[in-house]
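Lab notebook, bench 4. Still working through the backlog of constructs that have no structural model yet. Next entry is a single chain of 660 residues. Request: give me the structure tokens for it.
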Amino acid sequence: MTGYDTGDFDFDLRRGLADTLWTSSGWSTTALAQGTVCGVGACYAPPYAAPQARLAVVLEADHIRITDTGAPGMHGTGLLPAGGTWRLDGIERHGTYHRRHEGRLVSLQVRSELTPLHGRPGYALRVAVRNRADRELTLRLLPELTAGPVGEVPLGAWGWMPPEPETAAQSPVALVHGPLEVALGPVDEAVFELAVLLDGAGPGGSPGELTAQSRTLTSRRAARALARVPRLTTDVPGLDAYYRRSLASGLVCLWDNPAFATVPFPATSGIDGGALCAYAWDTGGYAPHTLALLLGRGVADVLEAMVKADLTDHYAIAPDGSGTGVAYAYSGWSLMTLAHAAACHDGIAPDLVARLHEAEAQLADRFPAAGELRDYGAQHNLLEMRSTGWEHVVASPNAERAWSLDLLAELAEASGAPVPAAPLRARAHRILKAVAEELWDAEAGWFRSRYPDGHTELAYSVQAFDALRAGACTPAMADALLTHLRDGAFLGPYGVSSVSAEDRLHYELGDIDWSGGGSYTGEAPQLALTLWERGEPRLAWDVLRRVLWMGEHFPYYPQDHYCDRPAAPPRGRRANVIAGLTGAEAVLLGLTGLRPQVEGALDVSPPAWLPGELELRGLRYRGHEIDLRLSTDACEASVDGRVIHTGAPAPLRILGVPDE
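Model written out:
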């Protein structure tokens, strides 16, 4: 077996660190009621939103009420949670009740299976109860649905925050179920099936049938997405789990609703109802090649939708394809990196390249020129640090714009688009030269930001390493930047800090996303990938190994996490993020050195040092199946089951340019 199936992503709930767990089918998403065995919380299934919904379950055994409230400590006298498993197609939980009432033992084993529905807005709940006592009892299940405000929210209104339905748009909610009372003999098991439908319509089948249908469709959609993704086998502790959870982070961001602008639709987050929009920035800027593997030719549809939406005034597209949010400085570069990955894996149409060329120019013109550079505005146009510092004329994303022009030139040449490549490369060269000459502070060994009034400021932001990756640094500048990659500055035992802890002006702990004390989830693996690309394998691994703990403790990766302790912020942040795919990107393009080429060739450039043995099986690229085995001393590559190379690690062309 080379690829993955749904069972490969099972996660033991006892290991979980997330404040609340969600499960998504790509059509509906719903949350566990924290600490319960059967309880269900909020549910979203665009356009339907039920942010305050709650389904509680009470068991009644011979008239003894057994609540399921998740009460901790000595007050937990009801149904007691005992673990479970998060799966791609739902969540299973276990619980126990073992108490005497007037000398008679009531002992129940309870198992619930929560399934978000596919094709219907809502979820199904299956509750199995086993009688462990030596006498018969009468068992009733009493569901209690508190729907709260439930209604339709236009697809264009699904932005960063989970939507709230307006009072005037309330919708009925249907609770459907089978029999709720049974006589249960010793060791016997009873099964109760329920479904909550946000559209209030008839069930269209029993809850059990809805469950089976949704789980089958979820399995199929996962298989489609994973068909080209290679399976990783390694003896490096923690790496396999980190890679699989990274892939799961991408899978839970893909939505299938045919009313959306594309199918699949790659939401930035969405599992908690928020950020169900698609940012150009983290859709293309963090893991474009891994996303291309998951989406296949659907990447072109995503690019088309984003170009059509006109990102000059918006950071993202809503599920219906309309623009949402403000202009974002990184949108142009992100479109180009995603387009470049699409061209590598599946080719790209010349007319799309021409339209991307127009879009890049419009996005650049959205921000005023400052010589060869651009003034990218204040924090709301950038990455939203909470202090003044990394704003206006900055090294990043000016350097990324140069990179995007180089990528655009490559795309034009490979596709035959009517876009002149030479002027693009010349402008890219001038931009990089200006970044180095105008913004570099040799004494500080860092980039300065320049404000419209001429004031400059030093902000030790992780974004400087993006300028390094984009090619803005001389060897001496690069060496100076890398001296800051040390413990107590940018590095913590559990990740990377978005602002150096040595920066007394800007470092703070209230916004770990971009202001210090932790970082956006894609940052540590992207920094590691940058270091592998620069030929710094030991330092790259030193960065990546710090976040391997996440693979053991999250079923999918949250928006951001701390770097000084193994935790994510408890509330107020998005529960999942598509940038979680960056872990897989770092493994594929960094740790193993895969180098997809825009003309369709595939190269590998193995690092000079590896932390252990690695094997990738079942990478599907340009109609071929690639297997790769690597260690520090050996490399074996196979194409379609035929070994094409075995020997010492060295740069190797695995596949040539496809025939026209």
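Notes after review: The first strand starts at residue 11 and ends at 12. The chain is about 25% helix and 25% strand. Flag for follow-up if needed.
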